[in-house]
Amino acid sequence: MDQSNNNLKTEILAGISTFLASFYIIVVNPAILAAADMPFSGVLTATVLVSAFGSIMMGLYAKNPIVVAPGMGINAFFAYTAVKGYGLSYEEALGAVFWSGVIFLLLSAFKTREKIIAAIPSAIRHSVAAGIGLFICFIGFQNAHFIIDNPETLVSVASLQNPVSLTFLLGLFVTGALVIRKVSGAIIYGILFTTLLAWPIGRWWGDASAINFGLGTLVNYNGAFSLPDFSLVGKADILGSLKFSYLSVIFVFTFTILFDGISTFVGLSEASGLKDPDGTPRNMRQSLLTDAFATLFAGLVGSSSGTAFIESAVGIEAGGRTGKTAITAGLLFLPFMFLSPLLSIIPSIASSIALVLVGSFMIIPAAMIDWKKYEEAIPAFLTMVLIPFTYSLSTGISFGFVSWTILKILSGKAKEINPILIIISLLSLIFLWQ
Questions:
Q1: Which of 101, 154, 181, 373 stands 20 to 30 A from 227 (CA)?
Q2: Helix or strand or coil: residue 295?
Q3: What stretches pass through the bilayer (predicted)?
Q4: CB under 8 Å, gap of 24 or more: what pairs does 107-114 form?
């Protein structure tokens, strides 16, 4: 009985950890889709609905500790390419999201995606896990304003003489020490500790704006309650999005969520050991179906595509091993249809600590790659580094597929290429050409 209670406590703490690492999507997704002339409050409500629906379904049906929410990158494609570039209305773009979900479901029903995963070489799988780790670490450093823009070198490190950087580093080291000491809920405690450290910044140094709070800064905090906005529910133009000129948009939506989902599931399973006896990610078919339903649902309620979140690694590292972790995180999204301003309490320098630390944990699978076998090491390396360098899971893994296939052919080892991988590589080339 005590062990059961301890396990439940661990799963709940893991769910809270995952939520704290991924809640930024509640405000970031509306901010990005606002560029498509969509109402911020309507997208916020849709984001919460997709996150709660997808995560709870993942927990109940797929029984995996993985959060599902509107994906980063695909939301930018929605706003800046589909709407601004191709000229779709946001209603038509939502229809395209819906149809990509339908295609996704069909691919899942015929077990096409399982065959794709089986065709992915082990070295690429390991590199995807490590690449995701580098990616979320990079996101964490950016969100904490520790890595900043530099017009000459693209990026550089922030000055250590400002209180925000010092607070972030102190929180990072304290949280790291808690992890090393194997303190249960270490990441949550670290986030709370850093949040408390961040409060005096605005008063002592007059720099509250530098903390980059989710819905504003402490000085702009104006209450905790807001009513949900369901104005985007049912707005998808499902028939209007089927124009021939829009098919390429549907293709990119489908391809991106396909490989974002695959790479996330593969990466998380490689890093955590959550696998079925045959070595594939645990309950893969159920997880992929959940991803598909979340995308279809997203189009209907007014958001860009839903997908498995790489930030789920935070909860997995905190001990989450079952669907209870995802259910906990999913339930935590729901109150923020009404309490979204409360997200401003936790600064990004606090939540970013979880991303940086988990990034370091996820680099472990890179040790399983045979780095002296160059026809495998080079594609694995390209996959691992291009995921963070291009800021895209899909782009990184696509280059991995293409480079693997090309190098095998050029080195006289074409017979080692799985026929499905050849098809994947050709599709990857089409995707990269867009």
A1: 101
A2: helix
A3: 12-34, 40-60, 67-87, 93-110, 122-148, 160-180, 187-205, 244-268, 288-310, 322-343, 349-369, 381-405, 417-433
A4: 107/258, 107/292, 108/285, 108/288, 108/289, 108/292, 111/285, 113/258, 113/261, 113/262, 113/284, 113/288, 114/280, 114/284, 114/285, 114/288
Rounded Cα–Cα distance for residues 44 and 376 (Å) = 43
Most confident of 35-39, 44-48, 159-163, 188-192: 44-48
pLDDT at 212: 44
333 pLDDT higher than 90 = yes
* Contact criterion met (CB below 8 Å) for 16 and 55: no
How far is C-alpha 102 from the geometric centre of its chain's CA atoms? 21
Q: Is this prediction's pTM over 0.85?
A: no
**Torsion over CA: 151, 171, 215, 315 (sign):** positive
Spell 396-413 as b/e; 16+ CB within 10 A means b: bbbbbbbbbbebbeeeee
- Residue type present at position 383: T
Give the type of residue at 397. I
Decide: helix, strand or coil at residue 224: coil
CA 336 to chain centre: 19
Q: Categorize the per-residue pLDDT at 434 as very low, low, confident or very high, splitting at 50, 70 and 90.
A: low
Q: At residue 59, what is the residue type?
A: G
Residues listed for the chain: 434
